[in-house]
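Workshop exercise sheet. Pairs work together: one partner reads the sequence aloud, the other fills in the structure field after running the prediction. Swap roles for the next sheet.
Pair: D.N. / O.F.
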Amino acid sequence: MNDAECVAFLQANLPRLHLRWPGFRKIRRIVCKRIDRRLKELGLSGIVPYRAYLESHPAEWKVVDAFCRIPISRFYRDRGVFQFLEQEALSRLAERAIADGEAALRCWSVGCASGEEPYTLAILWKHAFAFRFPLLAIRILATDAEPEMVVRAERGCYLASSLKELPEAWRSEAFVPFGEEFCIKPAYRKGLTFLLQDIREAAPEGPFHLILCRNLLFTYFDETLQRKLLNTILDRLVPGGAFVIGRTENLPEGDFGLEAWSKRAGVYRKVFER
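Structure field:
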């Protein structure tokens, strides 16, 4: 299967899965390699017989869907986002949570991959806010649809390349060397829970003060699914809570009860009245 054949296959069939081609254009080779391996497993000569196989074996579409999960992440990814959380958003959210009599700041990381984003948030909180708000705990729920990613996240060990953007002081304090990897210390696991869950099929109850959904919903899913899942997510966000998307992503057109808090950082705030 050559690149042109794979591109044609993806362009024709991603809509069936409510996925959008532009999100896969730059990373299509990852998906194409997975499909190529699948062709060899099934003993198929190319993409044409695979199309026929899909029509006669509808359950195979779930396999294709799994091939389209692209868990790309690293610690402190898009540092401007975490800098805005540190300098502005988290203190505001914490103050409001305390004013509302809350014992914990509740956060949800959607599509957490192997855990870099929620662990970064936990490290940021411990270094910049735990001493400022000693009576307020942080509770982070991190969900992902890929079982292997959840297992890796729970293990919490990473190669140095995943940590290179994390501030040096945080790196040396939060991790302990283990062979060729660096493992997160127990103190930074406290209050953090990983859950195998596909946002398209289920969502935690909430409510949450902060929800991060970066480089997933508005990159890979089509607009119909974006709208549906955005409403599902925002139903679990408290009024005044923060919603974070990828810096290069855009919300679908329409009034979803959000106002830009920092458009450059992809941070929005849920208005108190819709």
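Discussion prompt: The chain has a mean pLDDT of 95. What would you look at next?
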